[in-house]
Design brief:
- This protein starts with a strand and ends with a strand.
- The chain has a 4-stranded mixed beta sheet with strand order 22-23-1-24. Strands 2-15-17-16 form a 4-stranded mixed beta sheet. The protein has a 4-stranded mixed beta sheet with strand order 4-5-3-14, covered by helices on one side.
- The chain is built from 12 helices and 24 strands.
- It is globular and about 60 Å long.
- α1 runs parallel beside α6, α3 runs parallel beside α5 and α4 packs parallel to α5.
- It is α/β, with parallel strands linked by helices.
- Helix content is 28%, strand content 27%.
- The structure holds shikimate-3-phosphate.
- Shikimate-3-phosphate binds next to α5.
Length: 445
Amino acid sequence: MIAHPTATHGLALQGKIAVPGDKSISHRALILGALSVGESTIHGLLEGADVLATAQALRAYGAEISRGADAVWRVNGVGVGGLMAPSDILDLGNSGTGARLLLGLAAAHGITSIFTGDASLRQRPMERVIIPLQQMGARFEAAPGGRLPITVIGTGRAIPIEYRLPVPSAQIKSAVLLAGLNAPGCTQVIEPRPSRDHTEHLLRHFGAEVTISSDDDGARRISLTGRPELQPQTVRVPGDPSSAAFPIAAALLVPGSEVTITGVGLNPLRAALLDTLREMGAQITEHNRRQDQGEPIADLIVRAGPLRGIEVPSERAPAMIDEYPILAAVAAFASGRTVMRGIGELRVKESDRISAMVNGLGALGVQVEELADGLIVHGHAGAAPARDGVRIDTEMDHRIAMSFLVYGLAAQGPVQVAGCEMIDTSFPGFVDLMTGLGARMEEAS
Ligand code: S3P
């Protein structure tokens, strides 16, 4: 991986690619494999640092996990309730998903685990999972502000709870459901606004009883029957729509481009970026649409063309939460304003993504307004500016890094992005894949 590449406007992007496996599904497939008795196989697992950190933690809990020469991953699980006490600290690196989901798992086992992560992850709020997991009977010792490092003293007698999510977050939902797997009786999570449902799909796939219903106020209620005997399964991981967002954006912005991205997961609770881009005038067509293990998948053909700014409906946020950084970059090339509100959650991701985009775009010469819960980007109706000598700081955030590299591919001048090592957390091979399409991304000499 190049650490500080410069992205430069070049020829049109052309070609057919597949993006790496879905990060959310990859974490969950490993975790549920580790809780089944027998051998599960995972095809298309994302081999990014985040997911590898989860695999490593699950090994410390006693699961056997290996990668075959055929790139198929095999997980020999310990069964629900069967985790062993890890003999060392679990380091989840940059991964909020890994940390929060595994805290859920650890909370409902009568063992003690210590979790930490990198400087970015140690800044992120963990109270959001600690609160419900305490209600289930686990005890926690956290760094000030409810942050990592955290010691969790789990309970072998977890109490099933009914928990209403205070923020739409698939990580909180999944932490509670994973703890509920080892609680007798029915654990229920109520989501006023639905978040990605991969945990529910995969729990069913591995044989757990999960029912989904709608409350009188329209909230989504997920009910899980605890202590199932999970059966080992084969999981096929679709391409990650959040990773596909970057080549999609590049193909839209670099004039004359036409790029095909095969096998992209299009779960409706993930794919709202496509709706937004289409409202902006993007030409993105779906082909070979199919359903695999409950997840809709399609090949996408993306053609460059002019875009116009829109106001993104804030209720759409959970279904494109990780795509706002790249949308903000795209908006700088559209005509008119793009207004993004209701995304305060972006401030507690791998970085404060609202200020990272506002600062980076502003430094490059884009007129951008920061709001408490969003941002407004004033588009340039064509190539966006790239002020000389600016070096974008990615703040240990893979999606900020990729967003500005894509920006640089279509901007008026080259854009240098520092700290691109973090891209490996979710999209190993990103620079090679993009250069294979004709993109110019090179280490500055
Ligand atoms: C994820 C949920 C989202 C998302 C993250 C992955 C998941 O986080 O931003 O990249 O796999 O559950 P929140 O649960 O904090 O919204």
